[in-house]
Structures are given as C-alpha cells and as structure tokens.
Amino acid sequence: MTGRLDGKTALVTGGGSGFGAGIARRFAGEGARLLVVDINADAAAAIAAEIGAASCGADVADAASVVAMAAAAKEHLGALDILVNNAGVTHQSGPLEDVDEESFDRVMAVNNKAVYLAARAFVPAMKAAGKGCILNIASTAGVSPRPNLSWYNASKGWMITATRAMAVELARYGVRVNAVNPVAGETPLLASFMGEDTPEMRAKFLSTIPIGRFSQPEDIANAALYLCSDEASMVTGVAMEVDGGRCI
C-alpha cells in the first residue's frame, strides 16, 4: 500500500511536541520526507529520530533563523511541497490590561510574524514550481474567543484571515493555503490557557466542548493530513474546526 503523502516533502514548525509532533508522526507514517523544526532543537531531534526525519532548531519569529531554516529544508528535502506553520505561544490567562508588553510582542511575533517570514522564505519557490501547500495551525480562539486570552484570541483571528488572504492570492499559482482550528488540547500550552491546571479548571473548559474531551495531537494530525494531501486538491482558504462542537 502507498501512503497518502508518498513522494511529498514537508516542514513542520513547533514539531518537537504537542500538535506539531503529532502532525510530524502522521505525515511520516504516510510516506512524507520531513524536516522537524522547533525552538528546542533537542526536542525536534528526538521526534525526528523517532520517525526517521531530519531536524533543526529555529526561532520562527526571527528573520535570520527562518532563513537558516529554509536553507536546512533545501539541504535535507530539496523542493518543499508542504509547509506547516504550527509553532505557537500564548500569554498567561488574565485580564487583557494585565498582559505585559513583552508577552504581547512574543505572541504576535510567533503566531503572526512567523507566518509572514515563512511565506517570504518558501512561497517564491512554490509559485515557480506551480504547486505547494501551506497549513496554518490557528485555533477556535480566533472564531469564538475565551475571556482572559484576548491577545492570543486576536493573534489566531489574524492567522485565519491571513490564511484566506494567502489562499486567494496564491491560488492562481497552484499553491493551496488552509488552516486548522483546534480546541484546547493536551499540549504544553494547556496550563497557560486555563490559568492553572486543576481538576476544576479542566472541568470548566471541558463543559464548553460538546464531545466532552480535549483535542489530541492525533485529531489535529488527521485533519492536517487530509488538507495537505492531494485528496484536498480543490480545498483552499478553509479554516477547519477540529473542536468537538465548541464553535457551534
């Protein structure tokens, strides 16, 4: 049997843990050759070793680091077919006016500027090749905001709009751009979303998800696989909610 991504190359940012690691594992299992990228180079290397991929450390919010990441992708993969902008951060849950400027700047840099920097690095080659797929991991926070996460909510709303704008502009070049909107999941960011990781706070969050559980990396990976495969060749500009019904 052939994999759904046989012959494809893919780069996954934030691939050292959480949703990114789940996506990397799923893509590798479907035949893709990968570069796993994370600001924690050791974490990226561990996932890469597990799935038989290459890895590199990079800060996706830093222009020089993204240039080096693109060079590593060219060295290990050649032409890039799939770019997954998964790396993301949040600020601690709390009143919007209490979020310090450094935290605000970091959220906007990692969640927003990084999409721009990656596009600048990889889109020209995709346009020249007449093909490519970009997937942005956004959030239900950009559709149905939670209180006390205002600036994170705003950054993910930006990401959804950027996805649609990129899709419209790049469609004529054969490049598709989509997003996945996870609900809160079992990732390193969960405690920051909730403010504190207690049984009571988990129950409060779960009460807003009709299916009654947090998202898992496998849930997001399965959606990512479809959107990045040739099965979705007619799908672009979509922000797919993988949220157990939260946004209904």
How would you explain this protein's 3D organization?
46% of the residues lie in helices and 15% in strands. With 248 residues, the chain is of the alpha/beta class. The protein has one domain: Rossmann fold (3-Layer(aba) Sandwich), CATH 3.40.50. The chain has a 7-stranded parallel beta sheet, sandwiched between helices. Helix 4 runs parallel beside helix 5.
In short:
By secondary structure, the protein is of the alpha/beta class.
Q: What's the helix-strand series?
A: EHEHEHEHEHEHHHE
CATH architecture assignment name: 3-Layer(aba) Sandwich
How many domains comprise the coordinates?
1
Return the CATH topology: Rossmann fold
Output the number of helix runs. Answer: 8
